[in-house]
Please model this.
Amino acid sequence: MPSFPIREVIMRTIVQTGIVAGITSLSLAFPVAADISAIEARNEIVGFYESFGYTVDIGSEKISDGALLLDDVSIQVDIPDGKGQIVIAYDWVKMTETGGAVDITFPDTIEITGNVDDEGKEAVFAAHIDATNMAINLSGSMDNLRIRTNMDIGQAVLDRMTVENKDIPLTALINFGKTTADYTIVKADGDRRQLSGTASIASLGVVADAKEPDGDGFFNFNVLIADLTYGFTADIPKVDNPDDLLKAGLAGSGQMSYGNGSAEINFANKGDRFAMTSSAVNGRLDVGLTPDLITYDVGGSGVKMTISSSDIPLPSVEMAYDDAEIAFNMPLSPGQEPKPFAAKVALRGVTVGESLWALIDSGKVLPRDPATVVVDLSGTAMVLANLMDPENLAEMKGPPMLPVSLNLNELTASIAGALLNGSGEVKFNFQNPNTINGIPAPAGEVNLSLKGGFGLLDKLVSLRLVPEETATGLRAMLGAFAKPVGDDQFESKIEISEDGSIKANGQRIK
Model:
């Protein structure tokens, strides 16, 4: 494949195009209301774009029968650091006042061109968006504006791409099903804007197919997602430089969910091959940001995948899981009191295909029970610096936050018939002279239980996956740190003191 990172350019193009196209449809509506004239609306639109550093050009305009018609409209977006630009062009944009509201309509085709420079290597592309019956309706007032959008069906298509003046055999498109949205924009005190809204896309598909110009390499993928919905809120302060939004107190939240999804990926290059197919029943993403806190929660259910690769000594590997989740919340601003934080990683109901099991256990000695791993933490910490201020962080010589308490809400590990559970709590006393890398030594306790551990160890030894002498050492260690409470069941209470001593079930081990 060419040395220029084509896939990076493609993804950058798709992201930039999607963001700008979305901003285009929303922003054209943003400043308009029925109680201002068409010229005032036009000036507000241009001012809005220019406040983000965009360049708006309108070839000509005229007013007729209460409607403003703008011809040959283009919006130029400069990529930071002089890395290129993207231009979105409309043949026309029509704004019509109708009974106290404003309808905005667009042509069925929107042209997009651009160039991206990466380390002196330039990629030039042309694309277009076909949107059937795309329209925006505005109602309310400038202080409380409601925006409703609708599109029956749409498709974004990459028409051509060249890298260093060489044509790249690449096909890329995004298909949109029925799309609707309902937004509200409220002007608040201090020239702030408060946004909220919901939207839905009946289906979203992404297709890409690239071939190596002078070889046999190729890359293609096909992704399809159904029933995509999202909602958001945002509190946006007025700033002269968009880079200052976070410092000025930008806040917001977003929620996204989808139904059935599927993906297929194939790649080949110089004898290396990789292929994957996957499907999911549903998924979700929740994010939030305030000056004091950032939250993130992503998950998916009913996932199945099949992978084949020239690096895997099997025709294919199958894997599935019932549910996966990654979540965290982290304080961002300094204060005099400890602030809560949390983190969670969970992977439940994991199974793998028999072809993979056969590599280590063709006789089915180990049970094929679904595996589960969960780690759920929470606690409090002193935040010592504004984590959203890069300059502040760069000047710090120590850690930006120090733990005050840490809770192990859940530890679960279940695999091949063995089950490990745990919970506990430790605290960090800043008056304690005993430290670990500048952090006070923790004090508290952790409670653990293990069921089926010896049984699993015996099976691993019989399969020669664990040497007998290693297993003997593990049994002795478990006997020292845990107490039996049943047939192949053990419990252990680990106590940690501020002086650094550690006890297991009352017996000092350090």
Notes: The longest strand covers residues 192-211. The two ends are 57 Å apart (CA to CA). Residues 1-34 have pLDDT under 50 and may be disordered. Residues 417-510 form one domain.
